[in-house]
Specification:
Length: about 325
Amino acid sequence: MKLKTLVAMGSALAAFSMSTLAADVTLRFAHPWPANSAIHQGFAEWGKMINEDSQGRIDIELYPSQTLVKAGASYDAVVNNIADMTATVQGYTANRFPLSQIVELPGMVNSGSQGSCLLQKLYDEGQVSSEYDDSHVLFVYTNGPGQLHSRDKEMLYPDDLKGMRIRRPTVAVGTLLENLGAQPVGMPAPEIYQSLQRDVIDGVAISWDGTKVFRLNELVNYHTQVNLYSLAFVVTMNKNVYAKLPDDLKAVLDKYSGAKWSQYMTAIFDNLDKESMKEAVEMGDKLIPLTDDARKAWEPVLGEITEQYINDLEAKGIPARKVYERAVELKEVCGV
């Protein structure tokens, strides 16, 4: 009897200990990157730090590879509480973040670190923050410059794109491709590999981190180093979920928000850029830097897209010129 009593007491104590260790809140975090990627691991480490700082009361439950929601629907999924948190590309939700996407214009971003500094400052200054009124933003960031990558054809001059089917990452790049006689094809990054395999597209505009994470270096052979764009990202959560947290748990999440964590995340992307370029060279791919003549040919094309984007927004009553000029000023502050 005594042994049975001790066993029962031990079981009850173990159950009590497990219940005390259970998180007060579990936040479902959806993102599109593969579970084996450095980006996923970066978010896992961020979540682990939050868990430890909250003494186990906050648990970040990661859903990579579009397993909870599709990439293009993840921001709305957070607004509608299908997911509690997400990391997503603003451009996946068309026309929703036009001022934030000014940082995506050609030549605006030279590295993820610089671009993230720029975008986070625009947010903190209130230049773009109203675009996120329906969610609780933790931080914003960018990756490094996106270039052109193709399977079978070298592309050096703008005219070389004529007739090619190329995945477009942003509205501005889509317009640029159309102007050059190419056929832009819109799709989230996780769908590019299969589209290249099935000959749906001939090439892709994407950053170096994307060619590695989504294994595109396996399929493309030519990499044209023209700074076409960068991508804006947001890490955000449902407003009501945040509002219902006790103040001490809000303070933990606030501690892991803002500029420091913008730089934490973008450092992973900048490192992936370097790894991806090295990988492409080792695979025998051809990296194509712009010659002076090619650069002169691209400059008016890229400048035209920037002006067109700004003018289109101004025509809708959106203060794009003001935000663009402030972004240019911040480039000096944020360095290279």
